[in-house]
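Support reply, case 0932

Customer input (verbatim):
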Amino acid sequence: MKITIASFSFHGLLQRGMIDVFGYLETVKYRYHLDAADIWNGMIASYDDDYLYKVREALDERQLVLANLCVDGAHVWEPDPEQREANYRRALDNLRAAEILGAKTVRIDMGGRDPEMTDEQFDYTVRRYREYAERAHDNGYKIGPENHWGCSRVPDNIIRLVEAVDHPAFGILLHFENWDVEKDVGDAKVAQYAFHTHMAAWVEPRYEEKIRTLQEAGYDGYWGVEHHSGKNEYAQEAWQLGSVRRILAELASQ
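Our regenerated output:
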């Protein structure tokens, strides 16, 4: 089964100093018996070569695929030009990290806190993502935003962006039901663009519906389980993971 657990799911343990990226990799491999990782860059302690190659060694040693590198702090749009440039530099650091680690997909947020995008914002966002997509294509991965916060939580903004970037290496990380508008239909509207997924605990009663929707759209990526509470994280992840495994097994047997 193609399942991941987002390393953000253990942010509570990370804040308490009880896990790091190496412990996370050990956890997904030997506690949850998965063959893929989904690393949040909040767990990456350094962008120095020595450190990144150690993380790559840990992935390879455990025969783990890096299904996704989930990047915070490098979103494309900020109104302030200096902040935009700083975010761009952080994005480049993370793209290099993704390439060293062998990531199959990378999430970099759109930015923009208002639901509507200005013309300047949209044009800049398209230009940057097209640059990232060309680099991703050359290095064998896909890249795009998540419907995470701000203007990305409007399905039509996602559709407009994907159509404007118009690149085979560009898509989205679909965070199920994480919309500010069109909550009931947003997932289905953008399903065809998904290259990775995040499935929160609050969506669990509808996991089967969501999985079916993406399968019907031709999705063949990983099902990314993510927990947000910061409490009882090992048990919470076991519950969500068990639910996804059960549903995938039932659907495969039909």
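We compared this against your earlier run and they match. Two observations from our side: Residues 50 and 111 are 31 Å apart (CA to CA). The beta strands are 3-5, 36-40, 65-71, 105-108, 142-144, 172-175, 194-198, 223-225. Please reopen the case if you see a mismatch on your end.
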